[in-house]
Records
---
Amino acid sequence: MSTTVADIQLITIPKIEDFRGNISVIEKDTIPFKCKRVYYLYDIPSGAKRGGHAHVEQHEVLIALSGSFEVIFKDGTSNRRILLNKPNQGCLIPHGIWRELENFSSGAVCLVLASDEFDESDYIRDYQDYVITKEDIKLLK
């Protein structure tokens, strides 16, 4: 878990423009991992927050399919905030980064592409545990 907020990347998802509407396709090497799980967040009440965890091994890409939301990233030392509001742009989150999602617009839909199936043991859900884990890893180096 030696990743930092500097490792977060915005990736462009190919967009095919057409007078009838646009289409974006995720295939082959659009994202840098084999997707094993897809889920999406929607009907998020005003003022609600999502996320509030880090993954030990799993990587994810977040995409605002509709509307917008902000993602706050933390690595125990630095913070970074990214607004997602384009359906042809994804935010690649490597393992070991804390994330919180907030400020969802009305009708926002957040698509998540994950490198692994759900595994509760891969989640760190308490921020203090996360900071301690990051510090332990730094000491081992």
---
Amino acid sequence: MLRRNAGLSLLEYVVGLAVLAIILVGVGLFFLSQPRQLDPVFQFRAVALAEALAEQVLAVTYDAANNLQEQTRCGIDGADVCENQATIPTDAEINDFTHVDDFRLWCDEGNAIAGNALAQQLGMSRTALYARYLVQTCVTIGTDDAGTTFKKVDITVRDQNGSDLSFTLHRYNIR
């Protein structure tokens, strides 16, 4: 009568441990890489918030010294000099912004506006969805486009985990 050995051989045991180690390392690397990836929901909401803000920035005039009725631009052909300075009160609502420079109010990180407050000012629905975001908007003068003066508007949307998305608009002196 033949008797079979029950159990694992040493070779089977070592191979099993090696396979288990490879699987555990793979799973560990997967979970370690997760925080570095941008959450698709964050991306979608951040883009929606930045897009609504960008539309608002483009809707206001380049400068308060521009004369829309006469189709004249400030600083060109003897027209009034461009103001290029923010003219808003400290606790301004977005509808108080009269020209692009006003958006510098939120330029510094300490002055960044909360996402839900901005969403409410922009008239977006479900503003509570944006509560975990901070939005910065910085406006600077640029001349690196063949000597043409333009305003560079940087919009950064940051979430509470430190992930951020940045957008850059060039606002030329056209209205």
---
Amino acid sequence: MWRLSVLCLLATASAQIPSLGWCPDFQPMQNFNMNRFLGPWYEVERYFTVSELGTRCVTTNYISTPEGRILVTNEITNYLTGLKRLMEGHIQMVGREGEGRFMVKYSSLPLPYDYEYSILDTDYDNYAVMWSCSGLGPVHTQSAWLLTRERLPPLMTMQKAYAVLDRFKISRAFFVKTNQADCTILPDPIADPNYEEEKKLDRVQEKSAGVIVDDEVKKVDPPVEKRVDPEVKPEVPQERSAVAEPADEAKPLQVPELILSESEKKEEPKIEEPAPKIEIPEKPAETEIKEKEPEQPAQ
């Protein structure tokens, strides 16, 4: 009798809904594509779980590594303190090929913990219904989660997830809603003791690329090397006496009108004289030429 009591306590401590009998035979989703299932999921509703008591902003992220492994990270935020707790592990597909059934092995816990999950149905883009059941003799415990791609999903998405629960005849009476409000507000960085060290490291990295002035990075071009001609002698700075030099005499201001009048006087218009006329002597008439010729004596 005491063994049965211990099994019941263990089932209750594991935080699901304990029941007598064997686990129901729920078939997981067929033709399940794990690659499409990768990425972040937000927990909207779930069965009551002791491990998630007093928590909010629960998210799960599935990541594929280049080596072909699939890692899972559960992030849980404490409702009172705001501290985040991470549960990390890796996934191993179990069951028949193409079934949405896998085993999660958590390695970040003090004791290694393996848990089997089944994806009852999902459209990969909006919702997913996850279910789990573990039996200890005549006692078994069930867990169920409604996951969505959006932190605050629309009603239509939730109706599709509820339809999956109704198809498998899973009661919704034991579901509790996960608080996903105010999850994007980050804590004050000044309260973090590592904030100053990280800030100094960032400033050192920024200085390697430029100069920081008033928390702004300004890139500086590399200095240009000036070539010095050996033949040119460097300029020697002239020594100046400490006695102030007399100021130059003030010159009278030149009024623009006076300057214009003087320039107008200097540049007097030149009067062009008419070109002299050249008189061409007329040719003497033939009669006058004949008169001037001497008369020849008669023979």
---
Amino acid sequence: MSTGNETLAGRAIGMSELAQYQPGSVVSRTLIDKKIGTITLFAFDEGQGLSEHTAPYDAFVQIVDGVADITIDGQVHRVAAGQMIIMPADRPHALRAVERFKMLLVMIRA
């Protein structure tokens, strides 16, 4: 499956450049989309987020810029640039931008 990101392969590029902040919005860019999993970069404006949901796979989140509150099973974790957190499969989680932030989401389906 093509994601339109072939130009990214084999090059060094600043991850933060791949998704830009937009006022009042959440922007995402899928970097890899394969049957086995996905890698997606998100940019959240301050106050934006994702409502509580579950996923059938563990999700690795790396904060690239800014600060987010990530809630897992009702417990809030403040995660800042340079930090990561794993959101376990089948456990409710939500995200909210304390300040605008960018995150890399890695989901492995196998």
